[in-house]
């Protein structure tokens, strides 16, 4: 990627010179007199890395002009712009502002991780192509991460020069007056949000609040207290299903109590953040105009109902000094209405297809709408992320951002059917987004994976992520299929059942081939541990556990199809059920290392349903 060491994102300009600077065992990191306390925090990150990587203790000094590593601000450089020079006399990092200093330090940390105390002489200039580079993580529909894991996520974002983070909240915050909504969950608390906000600021990251306020209000609109505010009149009267939660539960926009309730939630949540932005989401309002507002929709149009409510929400934010953000899927049908929203409102233009087109980005640009492009890490509804899909999607969206002068990129990590995939599997996609938004594009998929394998996972063979990418493509009856069959393949809907089975029957033909390839990938991943140090080898385990789960569900898919279409089963169904339950026990142990209890029980319900289903087939 341009030099013998890996740097992510790649710098705009880099020259490797002859010679090396050998870090002395005792030295100093010097920060300029003009810098704030934030610069001290950035210097401390470097100080701690030098200790961790080398065991050298470096002090932090200010204004002595005798530092081993010299930091300074050069205001003629642009925001987040930095220069990094290494000669045989010392190391010099100049930033156009304090964030520029941070990014120079993060580059040095990447070099230190690979080169140790022997730093090659070099000259580097670097700056981002997009000013806003964010990551959006679902902490609602399945997993509520531990605070420690969220801090680790912030560390990773900062290391790869991202500057924004959002957490998707529907019901997983402990709102004071909404205990019925979160009582069976493990919600984040106000103090934790404030602590995370401060932690992010120390690492150059703006933690932006994000809250569902329109669609996707399943738990709020299923409470006995507030179900009357749902657009549809049957809220709270159906058993839970993952698909139903995703498809319905839009708020009644004509009821003033709806707006009052949502304002109350925003007013409680907003002050916990130092950010001047607020994401109201407002996406996928599938039911709008189909229930309580059917008559209004027929007379005024669904677009008028949508804009009326969104204008009120955005106006409330503007009155409180916040810049509104919202997802752009609904408004894409009437982008000209965006000029009715408060000045500065940002449209979050999402699209997750492998071959995503530029159409939505172009349409918003032609209508003068401020936008971020929002690709995804392709992990939802499956045990292991589809890395190549993620790479292609992110590459395209960031290219469109550059072409149509979008203001930023927000890379998304959704939970959907319980957030089955381990969150660490989204790190490669996170890094693709970091690199693409900084540079406007990416090296090849294989080159990018080699760099990430080496720098992020400490795999000197550079093969880990290409293996993981192959592994993720071996599902033929995955988690999404399993949930879909359980919830839609019921005997009560015979026509739907036949449709689901026909689709599954085509996929399960490849089970022997897919499971053999899973075994090959598992062996190759185990082989990678030879090229990793002891601190990194444990990162292989989640992949091995996911691989076993993929094999199990592939087998189960074959059993389901045979049982339902041919009325025969050749496998030992009791053994398959027992293997599934044992796998789930290990899955739970891993879950609790990074996540609270949250909705783990819902995943368990699916697992146990299949175990019981298998045992009930004994007579076939």
Layout of strands and helices, then pairs:
Blueprint: E1 13-22, E2 26-31, H1 37-54, E3 57-62, E4 69-73, E5 82-87, E6 90-95, H2 98-115, E7 118-126, E8 132-138, H3 147-159, E9 164-169, H4 179-182, H5 190-201, E10 206-211, H6 242-247, H7 256-269, E11 277-279, H8 294-300, H9 302-319, E12 323-327, E13 346-350, H10 359-366, E14 371-374, H11 387-403, E15 408-413, H12 427-439, H13 445-457, H14 464-472, H15 479-488, H16 494-508, H17 511-528, H18 541-566, H19 573-594, H20 600-616
Parallel strand pairs: 2-3, 2-4, 4-6, 8-9, 8-15, 9-10, 11-12, 12-13, 13-14, 14-15
Antiparallel strand pairs: 1-7, 5-6, 5-7
Coarse shape: globular
Sequence of strands across the biggest β-sheet: 10-9-8-15-14-13-12-11
Under the CATH scheme, which class of the largest domain?
A: Alpha Beta
Number of helices: 20
Helix-strand makeup class:
alpha/beta
Task: Write up what this structure looks like.
Residues 5-127 form the Beta-hexosaminidase bacterial type N-terminal domain. It holds the Pfam family Glyco_hydro_20b. Belongs to the glycosyl hydrolase 20 family. Its EC number is 3.2.1.52. The chain is an alpha/beta fold and 620 residues long. The chain is built from 20 helices and 15 strands. It folds into three domains: 13-126, 2-Layer Sandwich (Chitobiase, domain 2), CATH 3.30.379; 132-442, Glycosidases (TIM Barrel); 468-616, no CATH class. The strands form two sheets. It has an eight-stranded parallel β-sheet with strand order 10-9-8-15-14-13-12-11. The chain has a seven-stranded mixed β-sheet with strand order 1-7-5-6-4-2-3, covered by helices on one side. Helix 3 packs parallel to helix 5, helix 14 (464-472) runs antiparallel to helix 17 (511-528) and helix 15 runs antiparallel to helix 16.
């Amino acid at each position: 990627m341009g030099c013998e060491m890996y740097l992510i994102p790649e710098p705009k300009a880099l020259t490797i010179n002859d010679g090396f600077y050998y870090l002395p065992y005792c030295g100093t990191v010097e920060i300029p007199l003009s810098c704030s306390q934030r610069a001290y925090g950035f210097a401390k990150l470097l100080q701690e890395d030098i200790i961790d990587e080398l065991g050298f203790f470096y002090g932090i000094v200010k204004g002595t002009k005798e530092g081993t590593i010299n930091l300074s601000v050069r205001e003629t450089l642009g925001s987040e712009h930095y220069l990094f020079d290494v000669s045989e006399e010392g190391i010099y990092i100049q930033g156009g502002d304090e964030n520029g200093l941070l990014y120079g330090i993060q580059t040095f940390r990447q070099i230190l991780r690979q080169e140790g105390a022997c730093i090659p002489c070099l000259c580097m200039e670097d700056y981002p192509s997009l000013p806003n580079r964010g990551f959006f993580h679902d902490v609602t529909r399945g997993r509520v991460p531990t605070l420690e894991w969220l801090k680790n996520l912030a560390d990773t974002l900062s290391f790869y020069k991202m500057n924004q983070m959002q957490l998707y909240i529907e019901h997983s915050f402990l709102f004071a007056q909404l205990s019925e909504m979160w009582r069976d969950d493990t919600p984040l608390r106000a103090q934790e949000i404030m602590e995370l906000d401060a932690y992010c600021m120390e690492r150059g990251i703006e933690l932006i609040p994000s809250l569902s306020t329109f669609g996707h209000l399943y738990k709020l609109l299923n409470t006995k207290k507030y179900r009357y505010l749902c657009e549809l009149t049957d809220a709270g009267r159906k058993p839970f299903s993952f698909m139903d939660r995703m498809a319905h539960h839009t708020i009644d926009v004509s009821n003033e109590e709806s707006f009052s309730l949502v304002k109350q939630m925003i007013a409680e949540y907003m002050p916990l953040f130092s950010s001047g932005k607020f994401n109201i989401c407002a996406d996928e309002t599938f039911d709008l105009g189909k229930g309580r507002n059917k008559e209004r929709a027929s007379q005024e149009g669904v677009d008028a109902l949508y804009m009326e409510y969104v204008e009120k929400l955005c106006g409330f934010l503007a009155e409180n000094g916040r810049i509104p953000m919202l997802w752009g899927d609904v408004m894409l049908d009437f982008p000209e209405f965006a000029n009715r929203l408060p000045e500065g409102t940002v449209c979050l233009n999402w699209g997750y297809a492998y071959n995503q087109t530029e159409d939505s980005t172009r349409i918003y640009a032609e209508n003068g709408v401020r936008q971020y492009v929002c690709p995804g890490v392709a992990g939802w509804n499956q045990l292991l992320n589809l890395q190549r899909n993620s790479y292609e999607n992110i590459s395209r969206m960031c290219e469109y951002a550059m072409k149509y002068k979008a203001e930023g990129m927000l890379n998304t990590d959704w939970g959907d059917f319980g957030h089955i995939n381990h969150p660490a599997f989204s790190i490669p996609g996170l890094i693709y987004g970091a690199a693409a938004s900084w540079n406007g594009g990416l090296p090849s998929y294989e080159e990018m994976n080699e760099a990430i394998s080496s720098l992020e996972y400490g795999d000197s063979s550079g093969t880990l992520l290409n293996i993981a990418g192959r592994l993720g493509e071996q599902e033929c009856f995955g988690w999404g299929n399993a949930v879909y069959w359980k919830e839609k393949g019921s005997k009560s809907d015979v026509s739907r059942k036949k449709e689901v089975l026909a689709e599954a029957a085509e996929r399960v033909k490849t089970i022997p081939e897919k499971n053999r390839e899973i075994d090959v990938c598992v062996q190759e991943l185990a082989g990678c541990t030879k090229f990793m140090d002891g601190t990194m080898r444990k990162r292989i385990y989640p992949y091995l556990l996911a691989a076993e789960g993929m094999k199990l569900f592939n087998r189960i898919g074959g059993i389901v199809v045979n049982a339902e279409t041919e009325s025969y089963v050749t496998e030992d169904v009791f053994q398959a059920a027992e293997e599934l339950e044992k796998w789930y026990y290990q899955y739970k142990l891993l879950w609790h290392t990074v996540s609270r209890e949250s909705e783990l029980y819902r995943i368990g319900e699916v697992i146990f349903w299949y175990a019981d289903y298998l045992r009930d087939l004994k007579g076939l």
